[in-house]
Amino acid sequence: MTDETIEKPVLEPTGALSVETVLSVKHWNEHLFSFRITRPASFRFRSGEFIMIGLKGDNGKPLLRAYSIASPAWDEEIEFLSIKVQDGPLTSKLQKIEPGDQIYLGRKPTGTLVTDALLPGKRLFMLSTGTGLAPFLSLPRDPDVYEFYEQVVVVHSVRRVSDLAFRDEMEGKWSEDPLVSEQAPTQFHYVPTVTREPFDGHTARIDKLVESGALFEGIPGAAKFDPETDRIMMCGSMEMIKQFGAYFEEQGFTEGSNAAPGQFVIERAFVG
């Protein structure tokens, strides 16, 4: 038995947590990775929701954090997207996981980045920065989303080109996903922007793309946000969410929730 094997404790399920197995890990760059784990047969969630996941802490108790689920509700596995924080209580350990390792998974997913929290509309815009992309990897792969909206748009702002996780899949309009491969080619739009490196696409922050109208290029409809037809989801930096939350309210949009659907939503659990 190697030292590495000894260091990986056996996890025990609890009433609130199941124990799952890591199936695969992909490191996009030195500070961004994604991983897939087993999905319990009884685990149900809505595309866009988040769940608690974690590992055993130094005190022997579960060390948990909320993570948006990056896989769609129909997937037989569960995928997550994470940053690497070298001194982070959880991510310092999580970034070292390998296939076969065990991980805690909560039993009760929840969240407001779901279609249930929005009123009907024609265009769905998902605005994200960094790993805020995660729930917006789930939603565009859910066939119900294409029934609810004529146009489905993912906007992803990052600092470096290597931060554009899942770029190939989105540029390919989810061609490998059997449940949306017919709708996505005409209804899905991917708008990446890189702010601190040369890039062959957009290089401005999301607010500047909105101001110039560049964000709407190639997307049917007006070159501006319209509360009558457009629905918005936001996930990412506090700065972006606060800025656009105020902007949308000024434009006549109302914030929605599971109890009272509106015209835009943010994930309150992540912004406090």
TrEMBL record:
PROSITE patterns, per the entry: FAD_FR
Example GO molecular function = nucleotide binding
Q: Which UniProt keywords apply?
A: FAD, Flavoprotein, NADP, Nucleotide-binding, Oxidoreductase
Write the Enzyme Commission number(s) for this entry.
1.18.1.2
Q: So what does this thing catalyse?
A: 2 reduced [2Fe-2S]-[ferredoxin] + NADP(+) + H(+) = 2 oxidized [2Fe-2S]-[ferredoxin] + NADPH
Question: Which Pfam families does the record match to this protein?
Answer: FAD_binding_6, NAD_binding_1
Ribosomal protein: present as a keyword of the record? Answer: no
Please list the GO biological process terms of this entry.
Answer: cellular response to oxidative stress; heme catabolic process
Is Ligase given among the entry's keywords?
Answer: no
Domain FAD-binding FR-type: start-end pairs: 15-116
Q: Which residues form the signal peptide?
A: none
Which enzyme class, named as a word?
A: oxidoreductase
* Cofactor dependency: FAD
In the record, the note on similarity to other proteins reads: Belongs to the ferredoxin--NADP reductase type 1 family.
Q: What is this protein identified as?
A: ferredoxin--NADP(+) reductase
Which organism's genome codes for this protein?
Sphingobium limneticum
